[in-house]
Design goal:
The structure is a homodimer. In chain A, 13% of the residues lie in helices and 40% in strands. Chain A is mainly beta. The first copy, chain A, has 2 domains: 2-49, Roll (SH3 type barrels), CATH 2.30.30.370; 58-253, Fumarylacetoacetase-like, C-terminal domain (Fumarylacetoacetate hydrolase, domain 2), CATH 3.90.850. The termini of chain A are far apart. Chains A and B meet through strand 7 and helix 4 of A and strand 7 and helix 4 of B. Chains A, B: GO terms for molecular function: isomerase activity.
């Protein structure tokens, strides 16, 4: 099932996307379950917004793909590298991202994202599926110049707009450890990988995040990016397609 | 004025602390201003909780005191080091902190904390006072072993309980750049510094945080710790007193 968050007139609502239909839900599916109101809109008539603004945190993992670790000149690590992005960095599908004034080198990173459905701590990998609400597509935007300069990546990965998420949350993904990730910049393929190249499984990453922190419903875990990252420029149209979920589009401006 | 958040029976409320009186406020002073209900409790009869759980983020600054940078063997930096702690790390005055299973070396760091009152971005230092709701006391707990091991400090500084805040928010602090910070472990003085030893002013740090991110009402900025940090053990009672605000107490357990 595909759960979108969208605006028709004013306040955001949740809905189930079925082809071009969006069946409006009553309330917040993270806390009230899936209850349809009987109202349906056409997908073309609504404006999608970020499917979730975490009440707590976005947890990112880095260097989870061997080839990407190598392309940035890093060792393939024994442990996945974990970092935080604040909820003020989250934007939705189609939202413009203003490149931050402090950076001349913002890079795209196409990723599979996990959306947590339940409060949890110390979840073993084999139980991770129980705490996962669904999956979405993320662009883990990173200011490479700030990343080189700053010992901690708060600013490099946490600026406003640094975490496009969307277009919606897919609650059933047959095998999260075997989905294709393709990133296109202005229509040209730049990343073409699969989560089957990851060093750790998606469930392993959920387990590791939950060892570090209590996870809350709506928290998001970014699972890392395959090889092929590159810089974005003003005016670029970046599309990230994750197999079985959909395509997240972002446009960039100064 | 001292704004506390506390529990009498069930849901947390806000109140103004005046000596041993707590005058209950109607609603959330961050969004609804200071309106008293006419109900008053005695401070001894209420249980204080964290004066704010940020809806977005805790932004920490490190190496802002020359002597502390040196004691950890770091260069005195040209720029303050910025990091994030998630809101799941926040606990209140008197709350027990469970030392995380992944660390044998958790250190206290007594700090002055700024609580943001308004949504803002790119605030110049000379206007920072306009966006500050008030000040509280923080213990920027840090797992030194994880900090050494992990390239990013998400886990080292972000574990559950890693950010005790309290006992309340003081909205008027005569000179935030000249307040004493004393940390006592089991009654013994371990840190005895002043914000007048900081390399940057408090307003400078607010300005820098707001260059990196949009700040939301209730976001918290930790201004760094003076020299004298050390490890905490199970059973320790750590008290951090910031002049003009009050004393934040934390007890530790495994």
């Amino acid at each position: 099932m595909r759960i979108a968050r969208f605006v028709v007139d004013s306040d955001p609502m949740y809905g189930v996307v079925d082809g071009n239909d969006v069946h409006v839900l009553a309330g917040d599916p993270f806390f009230q379950g899936i209850k349809t109101t009987g109202v349906t809109h056409q997908l073309d008539d609504v404006r999608l917004v970020a499917p979730i603004i975490p009440r707590s945190k976005v947890i990112g993992f880095g260097r989870t793909y061997r080839e990407h670790a190598k392309e940035l000149g890093n060792e393939v690590p024994n442990e996945p590298l974990m970092f935080l992005k604040p909820n003020t960095s989250v934007v939705g599908h189609g939202d413009p991202v203003t490149l931050p004034a402090f950076s001349e080198e913002v890079s795209f990173e196409g990723e599979l994202a996990v959306v947590i459905g339940r409060i949890c701590k110390d979840v073993p990998a084999e139980k991770a599926a129980d705490v996962i609400f669904g999956y979405t597509v993320a662009n883990d935007l990173t200011a490479r110049d700030a990343q080189r300069k700053d010992p901690q990546w708060a600013r490099a990965k946490g600026f406003d707009g640094a975490c496009p998420l969307g277009p919606w949350i897919e609650t059933q993904l047959t095998d999260p450890d075997d989905v294709g990730i393709v990133t296109r910049v202005n229509g040209e393929v730049r990343q073409d990988g699969s989560t089957n190249e990851m060093i750790w499984s998606v469930n392993d990453l959920v387990a590791r995040a939950s060892e570090a922190f209590t996870l809350l419903p709506g928290d998001v875990i970014l699972t890392g990016t395959p090889a092929g990252v590159g810089l974005v420029a003003e005016g670029d149209n970046v599309e990230i397609e994750v197999e079985g979920i959909g395509t997240l589009r972002s446009v960039f401006r100064r």
